[in-house]
Structure formats: C-alpha cells, structure tokens
Amino acid sequence: MTQEIKVALSDGVLIATLSRPDKKNAITNEMYGALADAVARANEDDEIRVLLIQAEGDTFTAGNDIAEFAAQATGNGPDERHVLRFLRALATATVPVVAAVQGKAVGVGTTMLLHCDYVLLAEDALLITPFVNLALVPEAASSYLLPLRIGHARAFEMFALGDPVPADAAVTWGMANRITGVAELHTEARRIAGKLAARPNGSLTAMKRLMRDAERLVTQMDDESAVFVERLASAEAREAFMAFAQKRQPDFTKIVRQSSRPR
Ligand code: COA
Predict the structure, then answer these.
(1) Does Isomerase show up as a keyword for this record (predicted)?
(2) What is the distance in A from the centroid of ligand 1 to the CA of 62?
(3) Which runs of consecutive H residues, i.e. helices, occur in 19-151?
(4) Domain boundaries in the chain?
C-alpha cells in the first residue's frame, strides 16, 4: 500500500492527502489506485459524510507522473489505469467533496476540482491545464465541464495555451469558492468539511445528485480516454515527454501536422 496517499477519518470527514512533496505530488498509478479506493470507501461507508482532498508541500499536484506517461507511450504502462477508476468514482461520488488547493494544481490537479463541490484555494494557488503542451487532450470530462463552467473562450485558452490561472480569476470565473491564506488552508478546509458533515446528509446527497449528471460525465470520460490513449502513442507526445525528462523545451515543428478527425 502506498504511503504517498494518506487517508484518515475524523468526525465523519474522510481526508485523503497527497503526500509526495519531493516530486510535487505528481500522481502515479499506485497513488490513483489509493485515491480511487478512498473515494469508493467514501461512497460506501455510512460513517463518512464528506470527503476532503488536500496535499502536503508547496504544490497541490504536478498532475500525472510524466515518467509513467512516457512508459505508457511505449507500451510499458500498467495493466489497469487506476486514474480511470479514480475519476469515475469522483464523478459518481455521492458525498460532498471538498478540495483544499495550494500552489500549482496541474492537469488532473485542476480537472479533478471540477468534480469537487467546494473548492478552497490558498492565495498562491495556480490552476494549470497543460494537456496540449504535452500533446495530449483534456481528461476527467473537463472537455465538457470546463467550457460549461467558465465559457468556451476561457476554457479554450486554458487548454490550448496552458497558462496558469491565479486564485482570484479562478474564483471570479466560478472554478472555486473562496481564497484563504496558505497557512490557514487546511484548518479552514477542515472547518468547511465539518460544517457540511453536520448538515442533513440525506438532503445534501440528494441535492448533489440532482445537480450533477454523473452518467453524462462518465460517457465524456470514456470518449476522452479513447483519444487520450491514441495521443499518448503519438510522435508529438513522445517529443513532449522526452523534452520534460531532458529538462528542455519541446520542438513540435518538425513533426508532420496531423488533423484530428471526428471519431
Ligand atoms: N511527473 C513526474 N515528476 C515530476 C512531475 C511530474 N508531473 N512534476 C515534477 N516532477 C519532479 C521533477 O522531475 C523533479 O524531480 P527531480 O528532483 O528528481 O529532478 C521534482 O519533481 C521537482 O520538480 P521541479 O520541476 O524541479 O520543481 P519546480 O518547482 O521547478 O516546478 C512544476 C514545478 C510543477 C511547475 C514542474 O515540475 C512541472 O511543470 N511539472 C510537470 C507538470 C505537468 O506537465 N504535468 C502533467 C499534466 S497533464
């Protein structure tokens, strides 16, 4: 069992903490597995009334572990991609989910927030979706949820250019609820989760179910996943992963242009 996801239950709140700060909490397949188990537990255990996702260190998460992306690109990936199990569980979560975000939230670090019900940002939070920088496509149903949440123009720019969105813009655009100080983040998130845990849970979970079309989200994830797997094996993605490993900028200009066609 990985030590890089810590799970603790306290007064009806299940707290899942990303704990790989030396690698900026980059998420491995094993960590996705532990996160998926935590969400599944929150869905099944009647003692759990709220799920809180948080992270140690100065970065919420650097997103998917890029070394593992590179392994998948060359056919050396894991038998089961736990990320899909995690994202499906999150999209169909019955209990309210609170997220506490400090520093950079890259890739899935941002897209998972679209499935959370209360997002608390530290004042240094930066939301970044660099899928196209890595020659990939958005996942976690974010190709559907992000334009819905913040409008096509902003979502296109976030996805296509991968520029960081600071905390104040994220709140103004409706991607998060509130901003707090870095030092207060976890205490404040725990307070909000406790407040939600004290609400009538039947009412809260029924309200959540009415607000989210889980079936639609899972369909979108399946569509994205098919394209994502194709992109992982592309020459463009290989160049992007190699450039990351070699700590240089990728050069996509020598790769023959490939237009995406409807599937
Ligand atoms: N996958 C694997 N390892 C990662 C990682 C990732 N997504 N992000 C960071 N790391 C590792 C680095 O390789 C480095 O390891 P090392 O100390 O063994 O060299 C360590 O974490 C620290 O990262 P570093 O880049 O030195 O920190 P930084 O503060 O300068 O930058 C980030 C932090 C998050 C901005 C930068 O690491 C980054 O851009 N990471 C990639 C993000 C990304 O594209 N994720 C995929 C999204 S789809």
Answers:
(1) yes
(2) 6
(3) 29-44, 66-73, 82-91, 108-111, 142-150
(4) 5-182+197-208
From the CB of 23, is ligand 1 less than 6 Å away?
A: yes
| Ligand 1 in reach of 63 Cβ (< 6 A) | yes
Reading the block at residue 134, the tokens are 């890595």
> 184 CB contacts (<8 Å, ≥6 apart)?
none
- Are the beta carbons of 120 and 99 closer than 8 angstroms? yes
Q: Is 103 in the pocket of ligand 1 (CB under 6 A)?
A: no
Q: What is the DSSP letter of 22?
A: G
pLDDT digits (tens, 9 = 90+) for 59-108: 999 999 999 998 988 888 888 989 999 999 999 999 999 999 999 999 99
232 lines ligand 1 (CB under 6 A): no
pTM: 0.96
Distance CA 247, CA 180 (A): 33
The CATH number given to 5-182+197-208 is 3.90.226.10
Which class for 154: exposed (0-12), middle (13-18), buried (19 or more C-beta within 10 A)?
A: middle
CB 104 within 8 A of CB 164: yes
Q: Is residue 261 very low, low, confident or very high in pLDDT (cuts 50, 70, 90)?
A: low
Tell me the per-residue pLDDT of 153-188, one tens digit each, with 9 for 90 and over: 999 999 999 999 999 999 999 999 999 999 999 999
Among 19, 23, 24, say which to mutate for ligand 1: greatest number of ligand atoms within 8 Å of CB: 24
Q: Whose CA is nearest to atom 12 of ligand 1?
A: 23
